Predict the structure.
Amino acid sequence: MVFLGGGTTPWAQALFLFLVGEMILFLPPEGGLGRILNGVFLGLAVLPVFTFLPAAWFEELEWRVVLTQDLGIPLAFPLTPQPWLTLEAWLVYLGGLGWIYWMLATRWNGGERAAVARWLSIGIVLIAALSLSFRATGWHPEFWESEKFGPFPNRNQSGNFFALGALLILARAHLDFRRRTRPWAGLSWIAGWAVVAAAVFASYSRAGVLLLFGGAAAYLGGVAWLGARQSRHLESEDDDEAPPEDDTADEGAQRRERTSRTLALGASLLLLLACTFFVFGGETLQRFRVERDAGAARAIDPAFRFALQADALDLAAASAWPGIGLGNMGDLLGLYRTRTMIPARAIHPESDWVWLRVELGWLGLLLALVGVLLVVQRILPLRRGGVEPIRLAGLLALGAFVLHGVFDVSGHRLGTLLTAAVVAGLAVPRLPRGGRPALLGFRIGGAALGVVGFIALGAAWQRADFPGSIGVSNDKSLAYESAARGEVSVAQRQVTEALRWAPLDYHSYLVRAELGVAARMALPEVEDDFARARTLEPRSVVPPYREAIQWMKWRPENAVNALAEACRRDPGGADKMIARVVEMGAGPDAAIFRERLRAWVRGDAQRLSLFLTHARPEEVREEIQLLLERDPGLKSCTAVQLPRILQAWAVVGDAPSLLRAFGENPEWQRAAWQSWAIAFSRTGDVERASEIAGRYAPAPALPGTSGEDSIAALERDFQRHPEDVAKAYDLFQALTKAGRAAEALATITRVTAQPRVPGYLHYLEAGARMKRGEYAAAWDAWQRYFQTLRANG
């Protein structure tokens, strides 16, 4: 599952169901977990079924009222709003429970446990090596939907997988070093561990780095504790039973010495790893430096995670005791996002445990916690010797995985969950056999899962209209293809089929509304679908922005409300969105749209400043006149808005009136000096425009020169390389210092005519031309310098 993109796609989950079903059918677990733990697993398996009970049996829920009455979405009778998605998620969930049970109950002996750990570690090293090579080449398989690095779509899942793998590999290295006849094997594991550690660093995951360092440190501490406990045991035996000449104390001393050597070697490697990370950590290291600027804080600040979890718990509080049903988190969470205002969709609450609470209720969360505690109880106590390093690694991996689940959702991703279950299973000691009824039940369940997985795989392969996420994916994919061929009505039918399986899929409503615009369907139907998409995702900027774009193609006057909503959700992206919509509204049939748009922007200086940047000249003049009537001194404008408004006025407005306004408001002159200079240039006074630019334009940082003093040598060098900016700059500075201003200017203008030259060259050219009284050419150079300032922010 890890190699198949982490098992996050519907077809990969179908394949998992088939494989795990066949495994349970033909190789059912040989041992049992005891009545209490068996009861926990049975309770977890059955609990999701309660969400298929009629919704009428429970109290009326707020979110069901919104969906059915406000949005007019027809929901089926069960408590879960999307029963087909819940059924599919329950089957995958059962497969995961079966896998975990199988791993915990399998009766491995020491040799089998070591062999499983060896082959799993080799697989993890290979995937780490593949990930690093794919990053180096810039290519990876299509089914690796990674956002940054590794097979998983999310970087934290990749970091989690590699960090837990590094812990197991560390145990394998310790095991082989302890067998003093195989030091070469231990060294090979250390090399593999370094590869996996490099993958953790490259994953861009802070959680992965913390798990890597924390896991290694905890493992060394566990080894020290086991060694100290064994030494104390040997010493107590010596005191109570052994004669003075017995060598038991020597054996204890030897064990302590070996433990000390192991700890010293491990601590040295850990210190080396930490130094390597701080030197070569790159972007991953930068993620630990939390920025508080508007662009970064919202995605990096850990407070975002806790706020999103609080939103999810609000959803849980507004739901019945069995939860909302498996598979519904991503489609219902948006309705309760009151604390997390970022303009992007959230499909989970950034916590496995909160996710369990929402979809399975408090009882599901309690059963999961009890199950973890009982598994830990079965693992303990650990003893020194044998394959205890692997068991120690398994226990620590389980603890790290559970702790990471508080802040992320690795427990809801097959690739990480299945790997963690194997590692945790290696920590469970050999258990007694189970009874016949248990074996029969497992075989029946395995056969059922295998059949369902096989059918689902076939549906995914044939792109069939199949219940669940496979059908949703197939129907939407076919709809895109039909729309591309111009078969709009067919595409609408196919999207409607997708909504039959997933009636809360905001994206399907959005696509159907867009197809309705293309087909010029009845207006209320299109408006209803757009409203459903916006309401189901009340924070994402995508639905209202795409709605605005679509209305511009049919009814431009309807686009203003959608644009206003998009700008409200994402103020930082308002400039680009307004620019795109205004550009589309340039036709003669958009008069009503532009009137409504202007009425909207008049109510806010920020919106007006953005609109004026893209407005027509006559619109700029009219809006500025109206603004001055309301606010003659533009006191309501901020330090950011004022220059934008004055810039639009200077470029296409009435220049003489702007110059009078600058005279009446001298505080504008420094705040909007570019607009002041542009206004003078439009009246033909380029000398005054250049003087203002020379007075207020920020001086660029100038590079150093080569140190060559000979002008003749510099001229020869420049003649051989007339396009070389650095050589032109050296010659310019030497000629200027020698008082040969005309030659210096001629030198620099040979390179400023080239595209994309450094801004400081235009600055130097403008200053040189002003000294010679060439104000028209100086103003041209200043404008090019202004362009570089705007390009650099």
